[in-house]
Amino acid sequence: HDGISFREVDFRYDSAGKDVLHRVTFDAPAGKVTALVGPSGAGKSTLVKLVPRLWEAHGGTVELGGVDVRKLPLDTLLSRVSMVFQDVFLFHGSVRDNLRLGRAEATDAELEAACRAARAHDFILGLPQGYDTMLGERGARLSGGEKQRLSIARALLKAAPVLLLDEATAFADPENEARIQEALSELCEGRTVVVVAHRLSTIATADHIVVLDGGRVQDQGPHEVLLSRC
Ligand code: ADP
Ligand code: ADP
Predict the structure, then answer these.
(1) Tell me: the pLDDT tens digits for 204-225?
(2) Do the beta carbons of residue 153 and residue 146 sit within 8 Å?
(3) Using CA atoms, how far apart are residues 102 and 81, in angstroms rounded to an integer?
(4) How far does Cα 124 stand from its chain's mean position?
(5) How is the beta sheet containing 21-28 ordered, strand by strand?
(6) Are 47 and 21 in contact (CB under 8 A)?
């Protein structure tokens, strides 16, 4: 029941500006991976940010489990959606606060396991200050790559039914990239995933592909269908 539906969605960043999204309509089915593809500037990042209401559509609706996201209380919405974005947002507060987001009851052992899976333990566990001190450290003090790994660890811990990925591995160095991708792939299993996809391998394994260009859906379907039209 956690599918996402975009219905005739219009969006522009400023009221005088051009439409960034125009009448966008498609479904990201529950429990499936939907890949968003298209050239830079197509509106892919903007689109995924409408789900957790980082932005709101000016026309049309975005629905989660059949309910307009504007009608869902923010805490309900955020408990159902995990995000790993390139422009990582950490909430004001400590590393521990950020890790525990939506999972206040998580034990320190669970925090540690999620950090290990996301290769985030090095900067939390490996520092001379020690684990407890680092968990208390302000998230804002971390580097870009550390913040991104922390946001992946946060998503692993929270295990929300909906997962949004947008350049989730943008900051990963080569030695961490494979492990981080593996952790993300495991996390994707059985969830409703919308991934802004760049790698061909991601596109080829997605259940559904949506091609966006100039803020409009140009085509959609499983990749066999899209390839057959080329
Ligand atoms: P994509 O993810 O496909 O590269 P984006 O959603 O990032 O596309 O961008 C779509 C359009 O919206 C682009 O023209 C971009 O310049 C513009 N845009 C993106 N973010 C902002 C913003 N915060 N303010 C104004 N314009 C933006
Ligand atoms: P980006 O360049 O935006 O990070 P990718 O195409 O590399 O985009 O996809 C991001 C990550 O999402 C992948 O590394 C993978 O771990 C996960 N992922 C994407 N699609 C799937 C899928 N169909 N099944 C499992 N995991 C997936």
Answers:
(1) 889 999 999 999 999 999 988 8
(2) no
(3) 10
(4) 23
(5) 21-28, 4-11, 59-64, 67-68
(6) yes
Comparing CA positions, the residue from 165, 164, 122 lying closest to residue 146 is 122
The first and second tokens of residue 58, run together, are: 């000016």
Distance, CA 210 to ligand 1 centroid (Å)? 18
Counting other chains too, the contacts that 50-57 makes at CB distance below 8 Å and 24 or more residues apart are 50/6, 50/9, 50/11, 51/4, 51/81, 51/162, 51/164, 51/194, 52/77, 52/78, 52/81, 52/83, 52/164, 53/77, 55/11, 57/9, 57/10, 57/11, 57/21
Tokens for 101, please give them.
């987001």
Between the CA of 112 and the centroid of ligand 2 the distance, in Å, is 23
Paired tokens of 151: 């946001």
Nearest ligand to the C-alpha atom of residue 171 = 2
Q: Is 206 in the pocket of ligand 2 (CB under 6 A)?
A: yes
Q: pTM for the whole thing?
A: 0.89
Residue 192 φ then ψ, to 5°? -85, 115
**CA 202 to ligand 2 centroid distance, Å:** 5
ipTM of the prediction: 0.86
- Note the pLDDT tens digit of each residue in 89-139: 777 788 888 888 767 788 888 888 887 877 777 666 555 566 667 778 787
Asked if residues 36 and 208 have their Cβ atoms less than 8 Å apart, the reply is: no
